[in-house]
Amino acid sequence: MAINHIELIDLFKKYGFEYKKSSSGTGFYAFTFKTGFFHNAEVVYTNDADLEEVEKCLKELENIGYSTKKSLFESIELVSTELFNGFFNVEEWKERISHEYKLYCEKMISLLPEGDKSYSYVHVPFEKDSARSNSNIIENILSEIQKQSSKLLIIEAPAGFGKTCTSYEILNSLISIEGAPLPFFTEFSRDRQAKVFSHVFVREVDRSFRTVKSDLVIEETKNGKIVLVLDGFDELLNETSFNKSNDIDFEKAQPMLDTIGELLTSSAKVILTSRRAAIFDGEVFQEWKDKYKDNFEVVRYKLNSPEVKDWLSMERIGKLEDSGIDIKKLSNPVLLAFLRSISIEEFHLLCKQSSKIVEHYFEAMLERERERQDLLMVPDKQTAILSMIALDMCENDYTSDNRDKIINLIKIKCTNLLEETRQLYPGKDRPTLDALASKLATHAFFDRSNQGENKIEFVNEFVFGNYIANGVMSSDNNDWLASDERFVEPAVQSYIPRNSEDRLLLWERLTGMREFLSASDHMKYEILLTQEVDHPIYIQTTITGLDFEHALFFPNNKIKNSVFNECVFSNIMFNFKNFEDVTFISCQFYDCDYDKNGHPYEINFLNCSDNNGITNEIESFEIKDDDENLELQLEKEILSKFMPLGSNSITRLHIYTGVLYKLDGYTRRQITRAIKILKDKNILESANKSSFTAINKFSVGEVKKILGR
């Protein structure tokens, strides 16, 4: 078989071999590899080679201390595969991932007070590139991974809603598919050290692939032989200064994304999981995507709240509803797993105290911990210690730390609690202060962290958030401040299943911290905890990518000069009398209604849809402006964003719609109307992405005419 010897030599050199020209001959090629005390040699030969010469070559190499191997050349692809499998210990790597997956499953089972016989992943509703999908999310992601082109796959979900378990399912599926890329998984958490993503990435690679240089790992990632799964991407954005801008959030993320962007060539695949959907919205991220558009495609998955019907039997759902429970409030994987696992007798008892489901879960786990560790500490005192640790993490901006440091923290801040507990043991069984603190650091609600040896963290975001909220609410004032707004979301999410009184108290206790939230986050948490949006802070704000359901919108206070972008409203009652110059861009409305008195309203719709005609009905009240000169001037300014002053050509075919609303001297109503007029004239059109407006490339002549070019 013909052989491209230059390609073969380059391939072996890539893996650190040295080509031994003096030992090679017609139809065979000798390569040596030295590492420590081990000297290896491989001779690749073709059918045209003289086998006696090949054997002679092997003998000579053995005589000078090499361990030899020969292989018949069949194809360059097969040689590449064999080198990859050998150097990356593929079978051993798959066994390691399988073991990690089993440990993860066991940990999930251990988080149920009575335990359970088995763990199974429950598929969640999701959206792919803003479109709702009914397919299996794991199969959908695997199909993207198996495509030839390079892709950045982003999996977004609120704190505690299945990002990590989805990552583990992807890993377990990949190692089961013949010929699938080798998954490299790292789970990020915050520690007390400043982090540069490129350094962290190389460190993780070096730690995981000890026998292979990081450069080779990166090259094989680009070739599509390794898929990177980076769980908790946003945990590296530990910026201690507060801000309310998505663009500033993105600026913190950009160096990391640029490092990833440089990897995404050829057939590379990178999967990111993140809570911060805001990072990936807005003009700046779109510009970053445009920068790399010829290199890779971005595919965004959004995990929605779990469907109760996928977790519980109809009998149990009916019993919960008969008890007056709003089952949508229970759409949390930890609680649903708990409700699925308990006996039917305990389930019936729990339904009689329906407002205490969350408390019952934590109480049961803390009681089990007493038995598991022979821990004579009542649940309230365990809660106090766990809350102290959670608040210390919030104050000092970390989510994982060395176990010894956690032990020391418990000893320093909870000395009295530890001493009180020690006295409950008989003298001969009484643990030392260190031993008791050590027991608490191995609590079931802690788990080992992947960020280094002997590091621990809270086992999941729901548990972490519960103890953050518990610590915040134990204060009698509203002054709590965390080092980063990242810590607010898990606290809020953990309290959604609780009763209205508890949710409202948490919202009040977050008053000080709310000053540092972005408008989108503030509104999201307000509606989750209070079931309405009515805070007077929403002036000149942009709310992006939120889903609203069953709530009142501004029944008393006003919202002014603001934009809702790519939001979904379901069963919302709007009080449009309190809306002043508010624009909805690419929003969806399902079964919404509004106060019919007081029109016309100061609201505008662009690229919006509904299922009951609400947008057309409201637009029918609009009073048209009669200033044609103003309209013509505004149309020119909009078109100049596509063809800037001094240019005779279109510089970009599509533009982020939000940019058009930054034109000075015009109201949002006027800008919206001008965009619609230009669309009616077929000069502008909707882009493939709903947040963009595109120019009709067949109307360039008309654009030049309007602009006088």
TrEMBL record:
Pfam family, one: NA-iREase2
Annotated ranges, domain NACHT-associated inactive Restriction Endonuclease: 7-128
Keywords for the protein's UniProt record, in alphabetical order: Plasmid
InterPro entries given in the database record: NA-iREase2_dom (IPR055007), P-loop_NTPase (IPR027417)
Name under which the protein is recorded: NACHT-associated inactive Restriction Endonuclease 2 domain-containing protein
UniProt organism field: Pantoea ananatis (strain AJ13355)
